[in-house]
């Protein structure tokens, strides 16, 4: 049986990709790494559990995290995604000029060691921040929503607490993400 | 007019008196055979032996599945059972003086297990499967009693049943019993089991029909909620999940062999799928603890006289017939289950031989796709990875396309279910 092919085109980090004929059962992660040379998204368990491969799907009803290792291009075709390469601000030559708030916070908090899980954590935390922009929560609930949003991402260097602290800091210090802003910002550090 | 009323009142009084006479005369417990041994003077060694035997009876009878507390105390009660009439909660069967069964004698336990009547004459709802347990051997009952009395008491009150009128009137159950409660056999046959490998069939029957009470979920029920004896083990929807047809012919149609069934009962999975919904607790509390001889006896009994397995042939033409379903399968399912439905060990079940797509009723398939399945340790080293829930990624049209694709490609189905039929699936 000859391999069945599919013409695939989608939006990655704000740009339309060129249409490409791909094996119809190719996973999104392989497409990113092998065809687009976007190697920042990581392959971990290969079963959608560890979230090292998490990318952001910009759906009609807002951003959500999907595991690229078990999401096929057959579903991703025509949709819009953001990978870890797409969060920072870049100049005309493509060089990073400013990291996103979440990326910077992860650095400031020394949130990771080996970094293998980091692209997935960036995707999950960024999705949470963007969700709070449209549906802010009370400051008292921030701890809970951060844990809920990042709880599925696995880190094997014990970085969880610092990832959580960094994300909480960004949320508490970004106006509009919580419903009961306080005059004096209490940083968590 | 007055006279008519008088006649009506007289008829009503006669009916009430008749009912009371029937109630008193005919609906009590039947005969209680003598204890299998003198339980009042057991030696330490004998008691220990009976505790172990009783623990095994409790495993095979799967007491814990319904009598566990929501916070995980194995016999403290509180597991909800949804029925068409309301919710019943498993009772506290620890030897607690105030809330449990500390006051039960072995005879009392027998009366409950066989006749559904607790001390004081209180009628149990047949959610307690006394119509299955009715053929328990006195020896098994007594071992179970010794084991129950050896457990730690948990002083936790029972949660009353929440049933609609008139089902909340327990004495009415006496009349239900009159019609639907079977008499216990004079000589219950628990089978020889391990001691007589030549005769596993009696043991298999006892485990399936009596202790294991398989038919309580796998047999359709009539309007009075009694099992339909002429549709024994033919499968029914209970608590929004299909407990499938497990007759020999039904199993063969879905490709089950005796070996598959043994593997399924012992390990929680087989080429046909993984224990899900209410079968997962059955695995975790009961079948995975059963001896290999008993597992073999159960599998032999359930497949006795079965025709050769004849699962539906995979139909690759479903790909052309249902391109939208194929696209969704490749995009959302194939990453774990494989584009050819082969699955992965310890991760995801094969779909090419999975029975959920074969059932006429799509409820299990739809619910699994909608709700996902948590990561689970099955038995031994066997485990399955979490399956994500896809309810928020599939609209009704897409869900129907995917469900139809799975049913057509691997389930042997030709027909296409309407979008509304899939969308209206409860659960």
What can you tell me about this protein's structure?
The complex is a heterodimer of chains A (189) and B (427). In chain A, 31% of the residues lie in helices and 17% in strands. With 189 residues, chain A is an alpha+beta fold. Chain A folds into 2 domains: 5-86, Roll (Ubiquitin-like (UB roll)), CATH 3.10.20; 95-172, DNA polymerase, domain 1 (Orthogonal Bundle), CATH 1.10.150.120. In chain A, strands 3-2-7-5-6 form a 5-stranded mixed sheet, covered by helices on one side. In chain A, strands 1-4 form a two-stranded antiparallel sheet. A two-stranded antiparallel sheet of chain A has the order 8-9. In chain A, β5 (54-59) and β6 form a beta hairpin. In chain A, α3 packs across α6 and α4 packs across α5 (142-150). The model of chain A has no long low-confidence stretch (mean pLDDT 94). With 427 residues, chain B is mainly alpha-helical. Chain B folds into 3 domains: 22-180; 193-302, Cytochrome Bc1 Complex, Chain D, domain 2, CATH 1.10.760; 318-423, Cytochrome Bc1 Complex, Chain D, domain 2. Chain B has helices spanning 2-26, 44-61, 63-67, 106-115, 130-133, 138-149, 173-180, 200-211, 215-218, 248-253, 258-267, 279-285, 292-302, 318-321, 323-337, 363-371, 396-409, 419-423; strands at residues 80-83, 86-89, 162-163, 236-238, 241-243, 269-270, 273-274, 376-377, 383-384. In chain B, the strands form 4 sheets. A 3-stranded antiparallel sheet of chain B has the order 1-2-3, with no helix packed on it. A two-stranded antiparallel ribbon of chain B has the order 4-5. Chain B has a two-stranded antiparallel sheet with strand order 6-7. In chain B, a hairpin with a 2-residue loop joins β4 and β5. The mean pLDDT of chain B is 93. The interface between A and B is medium-sized, with 17 and 18 residues.
Give the N-terminus to C-terminus distance of chain B in angstroms.
Answer: 53 Å
Indicate the overall shape of chain B. Answer: globular
Low-confidence stretches of chain A: none
Q: Can you tell me the number of structural domains of chain A?
A: 2
Helix tally of chain A equals 6
* Count of extended strands of chain B: 9
Helix content of chain B: 40-55%
Label the structural class of chain A.
alpha+beta
Which strands sit side by side, in order, in the main sheet of chain B? 1-2-3
| Average residue pLDDT of chain B | 93
What's the pLDDT, averaged over the residues of chain A? 94
Element order of chain A: H for helix, E for strand: EEEEHEEHEEEHHHH
Q: End-to-end distance of chain A, in Å?
A: 60 Å
CATH class of the largest domain in chain A: Alpha Beta
Helix share, percent of chain A: 25-40%
Strand line-up in the sheet with most strands of chain A: 3-2-7-5-6
Helix/strand-derived class of chain B? mainly alpha
So, CATH architecture of the largest domain in chain A?
Answer: Roll
Continuous helix count of chain B:
18
Number of strands of chain A: 9
